[in-house]
Amino acid sequence: MFTYYLRLAMKSIKRNPILSALMITAIGLGIGASMTTVTVNYLMSANPIPHKSEQLFYVQLDSWSEFEPAREPNEPPDQITWTEATNLMQANQAYRQSAMASTGGVIEPQGQDEKPFMASIRLAFSDFFPMFDVPFLYGSGWPDSSDKNRDYVVVISKATNERVFGGENSIGRTIRIVGENFRVVGVLDDWLLVPRFYDVTTGAFDETEEVFMPFYMKQELELTNGGNTNCWKTPEGEGFTAFLQSECVNYQMWVELRNDNEKAQYMNFLDNYVNEQKSLGRFARPLNNRLSNVMEWMENQEVVADDAQIMMWVSFMFLLVCLLNTIGLLLAKFTGKAAEIGLRRAVGASKTDLFIQHLVETACIGIAGGILGLGLAYLGLEGIKSLYGEFVQNLVGLDVTMMASAILLALVSSILAGMYPTWRACNIAPASQLKS
Amino acid sequence: MSSNQWEIGPIFRALMRNKVGAILIAIQIAVTMTIVVNSIFIILERAQRIERDSGIDEVNSFYLTTTGFGENFDPKSTAFNDLELIRNTPGVLDAIQINAIPVSGSGWSMSFQTEPGEEKETQGGAIYMVDEHAIDALDLEVIAGENFLPIDVRFRQPGVRDWPDNVLITKVLAESLFPDTPYQNVVGKTIYISQTEPMIVKGIVDKIQAPWVGWDDLEHTVLTPEITGFESNRYYVRAQAGQRDAIMPVIEEALASSNKQRIIRGMRTVQETRERSYRGDTAMIKILSTTMVILTIVTGLGIVGLASFSVNRRKKQIGTRRALGASQGSIVRYFMIENFLISTVGVSLGAALTVILNMLLVEMFSLNALDWYFVPAGMIVLWVVGQLAVFGPAKKAATIPPAMATRTV
Predict the structure, then answer these.
(1) CB atoms near residue B329 (< 10 Å)
(2) A27 and A119 together in one domain
(3) Best A66, A175, A310 residue to mutate vs chain B (most B CBs within 10 Å)
(4) Is the pLDDT at B241 greater than 90, yes or no?
(5) Which of B291, B298, B306 lies at the smallest CB-CB distance from A26?
(6) In a domain, B44, yes or no
(7) For all residues of chain B together, what is the average pLDDT?
């Protein structure tokens, strides 16, 4: 029976080719626009570390000026000072913890043909690698002791390893960075984080760094400040040490806390720490410490761009118009078939038969529209790539889930759109149609 | 003409017999109008943003960064030698060392105030560290007071926290700091940086934007006279008209070979930087424009489709009317008026939806509120679209011969 309905549907679609094409195009356009924007939003708001995002917490301490909050209405600064970063690390009160900062430096490859190049560097503690499940191709992160001993060790990205060592296993070899010799202890595998949640201060969709080195190298080698530096008070005195000791924030801090109990304990520790600092004349503002898990922090930092959201809502309205269009056209079409329906009813087809038959027809149109929409979504994403340039590369891929949901959305929406026209068509009284 | 001649009554009654089709069209028109009007408003706002003038000679300028490495690298001599080399290259109009590039998105800002101390009213300002060549290199004009003299320009070592004594500020910043004083009289006044450190306003420049295009105080800018001795140095070069592309590789090569203890990176024209900084806005304009046009076409085609159908269904009635003496014109008029009635319902609903959507956008994304005249303008546009769409089917209806009345469909 189903194949018979399918044949009838094909016949009916072919009978009004322009009208059918119009409906398929309308559904295709609506689905295409919606899928394009949904994909961008979906990837922007994706959970970058789903199995652990509830256990990783970003630390904020309100060290700002007593006269104004770091951000209205009463938000603590979104980074911490050197003093807090080193104190919290020394206290070692979480299951895992890493303060971190970004910087940059020149790498001088040993080969004669390779030119020196600028590399992005992340300063972090040894816990960084297990905490964020960083994938390794060779070796591993450095041990705890390297943090304290200020060992000249680095972990390099796969791309850096290819550029400097031709992709060989470079564990134990020497690499010259910022004018110093470092020993390679680990080479990362491809590590794509969308968004790059651990530091979103200069944009959530930056790539992971090319070099990772122990945090205290900042002080040891007087490395430059990457990212944003914000100060509410000028550093007292001159020189690098004065800057490190200032109230300027340029460091991020993540901790891993395995359950609510650990979280409560850590929060308690933070409050005690701040109270202690208050007695030393710092932290003039009321207690306002925060622990945000990964998704809370992404929400707080508004990583999904407003424009992407506006576009998504506009495309949903677009889809609505396209569906209304389809309803109207189907209604017209089925009303036009009144005589035929009347005849079929008169020769014995039940209302249910007719309902199913027309539903098959709308489903066919829906699937065709869905396939067209998928093609258009692909074009739309290519368009977005060319409009926004390379920094959205990671935001514009269609995966199987998205493709399946495109077809499903098209099918469901076209069947919904077909409901009313179909119902109307089946309720035509056969007698009235047979008279004329 | 009385309403009788326009046949509004019969048209309306006929419409009521096929309410659903008419309502569908009306809602489509309403939603289309909502999207179109809000899109046009966003597009115009973004276009205005992009068109703001940065105040510098963008077309002829480019910049690059050099980063030194190794123990033998001397930032100070490098900076002075580089500047001399660049300025003496044929085709260069002037060049400076600068810490940040206008429109580029990254830079250094400080708070300024007119009285020393904590808890005073402050104005934020972007800082450009430059020397006396900045006026020519950036294409600025000193509209009051004087430019820096070479003797004003100091050498800034890394880690230095204090500031030079003399500064140039933009007219807009002068007016924000001293709202009651004409900007000419701000010359010679003292302003304070880091709450307590005084600086004297040596001159006022006409206009130069801060690096952050999304910043509210985009023209709050301060030029401080200093050459910096950091490992990373940025040079901004203004070429003579038409020479930019020719001298870019020349300068890159000359710098690279003059000192091997550094890498040269990020050479880029200011035009490209502007394009990058506003890429999001440009993309939004293109995406919304495309959406808007396609949507209007879809709605238009929907109207055409439904009208054609209703013409086909009413062939017999139309033939009868023609046979009874109705002119072709009155048939066309019938469908045009029918569409006008539907559109009127649509655009009225659309006006309300437009305002609601705008209110939501204001609430959720802090966009600006719509100017009122966008609403009537949108209504007129959608009315015209409806009339244009229905004109084809209406013309076709008018060609139905009166003899049709005698045939069965």
Answers:
(1) 9
(2) no
(3) A310
(4) yes
(5) B298
(6) yes
(7) 91
Does residue A433 lie within any of the structural domains?
Answer: no
On whether residue B150 sits in a domain, the answer given is yes
Looking at the structure, tell me whether residues B39 and B88 fall in a common domain: no
Judged against a pLDDT cut of 70, whether residue B408 lies above it is answered with no
Restricting to A residues 80-119, those with a Cβ less than 8 Å away from any Cβ of B are 105-106, 108, 115-118
Q: How many domains does chain A have?
A: 2
**CA–CA distances in Å: residue B161 to residues A234, B98, B155, B325:** 8, 17, 13, 94
Are B408 and A307 within 8 A, CB to CB? no
B159 part of contact set with chain A, CB < 8 Å: yes
Q: Is B349 on the interface with A (CB under 8 A)?
A: no
- Alpha-carbon distance of A39 to A436, in angstroms, equals 52
Q: Say if CB A230 and CB A79 are below 8 A apart.
A: yes
A241, closest residue in chain B (CA to CA): B159
Q: Is B397 exposed, middle or buried (0-12, 13-18, 19+ CB in 10 A)?
A: buried
**B260: contact with A, CB 8 A cutoff:** no
Residue B341 covered by a domain: yes
Q: Give the single-character DSSP code of A75.
A: B
> Is A325 in Cβ contact with B159 (below 8 Å)?
no
pLDDT of the residue at B2: 47
- Decide if B106 is inside a domain: yes
Please report the residues numbered 48 through 67 in chain B whose beta carbons come closer than 8 angstroms to any beta carbon of chain A: 67
* DSSP summary character for residue A263: H
CB contact under 8 A, A321 and B409: no
Q: Which two tokens stand for residue A355?
A: 């309902």
Which is higher by pLDDT, A348 or A208?
A208
The answer to whether residue B5 scores a pLDDT higher than 70 is no
Question: Residue B285 belongs to what domain range?
Answer: 8-51+279-406
Same-domain pairing of A374 and A295? no
In a domain, A432, yes or no: no
Question: Angle formed by the axes of helices B328-365 and B374-398, to 10°?
Answer: 150
Chain A interface test: which of B119, B284, B297, B353 (most A C-beta within 10 Å): B284
- Going from the C-alpha of A166 to that of each of A13, A109, A213, the distances in angstroms are 60, 11, 21
Q: What is the pLDDT of residues A38-97, one digit of tens each?
A: 888 888 888 889 999 999 999 999 999 888 888 888 899 999 999 999 999 999 999 999
**Residue B35 to residue A108, Cβ atoms within 8 A:** no
Show Cβ contacts of residue B32 under 8 Å, excluding neighbours closer than 6 positions. Answer: A321, B295, B296, B299, B350, B382
Indicate whether B204 pLDDT > 70. Answer: yes
**pLDDT tens track for B129-144:** 999 999 999 999 999 9
Q: Are strands B262-269 and B154-156 parallel, antiparallel or unpaired?
A: unpaired
Per the structure, the complete domain to which residue A375 belongs is given by: 2-45+305-426
In a domain, A275, yes or no: yes
Please tell me the distance from the alpha carbon of residue B383 to that of residue B341, in angstroms, as a whole number: 10
Domain boundary residue, one of A285, A300, A315: A300
Residue listed under structure tokens 């922007």: A44
Q: What is the mean pLDDT of residues A327-352?
A: 83
> B283 and B256, same structural domain?
no
The answer as to whether A182 is a domain residue is yes
pLDDT band at B1 (very low <50, low <70, confident <90, very high): very low
Chain B within 8 Å of A231 (Cβ-Cβ)?
no
